[in-house]
Amino acid sequence: MKIAVIGTGYVGLVAGTCFADNGNDVICVDQDPTKVERLKKGIIPIYEPGLEKLVLRNVESGRISFTTETAEAVKKSDIVFLAVGTPPLPSGDPDLSYLESAARSVGRAINGFKVIVNKSTVPIGTHQTVAQWLSEETDELFEVVSNPEFLKEGTAVDDFLKPDRVVIGTRSDRAFEMMEELYGPFCRQGNPIIRMDPVSSEMTKYACNAFLATRISFMNEIAQLCDLLGGDVEHIRKGMGSDVRIGKHFLYAGAGYGGSCFPKDVQALMAKGREVENPLKIVTATEEVNHAQKTYLFKKIKNHYKGEISGKKFAIWGAAFKPNTDDMREAPAIEMIRSLLKDGASVSVYDPVALDNTRQIFEDAVTYGKNASDTLRDADALVLMTEWNEFRHVDFNEMKLNDQVIFDGRNIYSPEKVKKSGMTYYGIGRS
Ligand SMILES: NC(=O)c1ccc[n+]([C@@H]2O[C@H](COP(=O)([O-])OP(=O)(O)OC[C@H]3O[C@@H](n4cnc5c(N)ncnc54)[C@H](O)[C@@H]3O)[C@@H](O)[C@H]2O)c1
After folding, report:
1. What is the structure's pLDDT at 192?
2. 28: β partners
3. How far is the CA of 86 from the centre of ligand 1 (A)?
4. What's the 30 CA to ligand 1 centre distance in angstroms?
5. What would the mean pLDDT of 127-149 be, rounded to a whole number?
6. For a surface tag, which of 220, 275, 287, 316 has the fewest beta carbons within 10 Å of its beta carbon?
7. Residue with CA at minimum distance from ligand 1 atom 39
8. 155: Cβ below 6 Å to ligand 1?
9. Residue 91 has what pLDDT?
């Protein structure tokens, strides 16, 4: 099939590449000429395991190409995916200006029936707005389909190639059949293609992310109770997760959730609830707990130092919002570093792949380690913010921290082992 993908970020690049790998002709469009030039040279702008190899393979076979020209891509395609960013506005509503601009450019270029697919995460009802923008630009026939994306950064390629399910929101049989043909090869193992109306499809995406975020905030509250009453939230997580009704995913207490999706989508769902005068109490609490959780570990640091951290040097391991990505959007490490600096401490950071993005935020305000152990040089304490595998196996006896203390924001270390090495351990909910 002939596919155009408008917006070549984490979602658009992965989706476009995976469609191409399944034998489709894909044109990826981005408004950022530097990104497009780099992609044409085979330089991948993001870190995503397995992506580079797949992009290069499909560039070589001529199945995927990159351009800044939306019109050219749309004219050559039957299905056009909108995968531009929808970042949050201060009100919590997503900023739809990128989507509008992309949709209108698509509308101006339509030259015959097209299926226009909304892959960006958009407020419930946006399929109608997109149809309106398009019809203001063209008299040609089109169908707008909602097809939310559920991939996870860090495992995006695998998630896209083997999705748990594909959700397609459309009332049009013609559009559904085209989408079914496109996604058929990804669903050969019996993973379902679920057809529904567009409102349900748009809401499914928000409901999933809000629900997963709620699980995390719930565990963070349980962790706070553990800190007050005794108990270890890691034991509780295992005890809960073995119950098949609960399942083991997204039960990890820690320094709060971040990333480009959970915080934004939770806020967007809250905004929608307020708009229809039905505020969402559970989701609102999820957001509040997470907001507080982002400073919870910092408070432990302050308590340990009896309120005085000025002049102390902290080594930060991990900056990305989670392992296996370079994405720093809403990463809890940002807030931690800002708080430490504000109180007069100095900071040295190491992350296996997110250091360039960290530099863009903090520039010369912090120093950057060449590797994990280099970051510890002259440090008073270690603060772990992202659970990269390379941080898991360390010899605590070899660590030379001046104040002999570890603050583990992801509960990856055994408190007993740390203590055995003579150091003090703080986790989240592991009193
Ligand atoms: N990142 C994720 O893990 C993830 C997962 C599921 C859904 N989503 C949703 O998918 C959407 C895209 O997210 P992302 O993380 O890929 O964003 P991103 O910021 O990584 O990429 C968006 C890209 O769109 C480009 N763009 C913006 N306006 C454009 C226009 N008019 N024409 C052409 N290109 C344009 C930008 O230059 C950028 O490269 C968002 O709505 C997001 O909520 C993201």
Report:
1. 98
2. 5, 66
3. 7
4. 10
5. 98
6. 275
7. 9
8. no
9. 87
